[in-house]
Every structure is written in C-alpha cells, then in structure tokens.
Amino acid sequence: MSDQPSTPSAVTVEEVVEVDDGLVEAMVRLVPQLSSSAPPMTAEIISAVVDHEAAHLLVARGADGRIVGSMTLVVFPIPTGVRAWIEDVVVDEAARGQGVGEALNRRALELAELLGARTVDLTSRPSREAANRLYQRIGFVQRETNVYRYERKG
Hints:
25% of the residues are buried. The protein is an alpha+beta fold and 154 residues long. It has four helices and five strands; from the N terminus they run βααβββαβα. The N and C termini lie far apart (41 Å).
C-alpha cells in the first residue's frame, strides 16, 4: 500500500498485485456504477488486467480498508515515446466528493512518470461534470481532437 502525500488522509491508493475475494467483491460492486454494458466481473477478468504487463489496476481504500474506487493505468511504448492512458475510473457512489477520484488520479500520474510516460491521456463524457472539473484542476488539458471508436461486429 502506498499512501501519497497529496491523498486525503482517509484514502490510500495501492496497485493491485494479487486478485482475492475482497477485490472481486469490490469490482462486482463498482464496475456496474461505471458501465451497464460491461460483462459481470469475475476473478478471471480481473486477473487478466492485473497480470498484463502494460496494465496497472489501482484501488482506493477508505479509512476502514474497504475498496471505494478503482482505475486502470495502461502504459505502453510507441515509436514517439512511452505513453499512458487512464481508463475505467470509478468511485463508489457512497464515497463521491471525498477525494477518492483525485487520490486515484494523482497516484496514476506519479506511477506513469515513474514508468517513463511522456503523456497521460484520458477521456470523459461531458455529462460527468464533477470528473471533468477534477481532471482540469489537477492539470489535464482538454485537447482539440476527435476521438473515434471502432466496435467489432458480432
């Protein structure tokens, strides 16, 4: 576990290195708060993330040790340098507004820097107003770009 100085004292953020029942239970609770179309969480799905060399699953724990948020930082090399993306940020509804999202993001930025990433990108729906204010407050700058998605058929 790694409590960061920029983290509210009641929140600690750690990188997951091993999948256990408590983590699976937390992800079963959290992921539907992020996406209604995500597959049901299983230990196998979570292990695929945790075991992948480019992915870093971070969890935030409240003062009682309960997981109250998670995110995935993906760090990868490309010809122009090492880049990073933040994906699947979710904070438990009961813990929103308590600094959990900020703690997760600040830890992800520190880890990305340690791993040599030149940039860290993320996307956020405009309707997620509080999240967008947070990203701007901690230093993310909205880019003038188009985001495209290709979805495999079938």
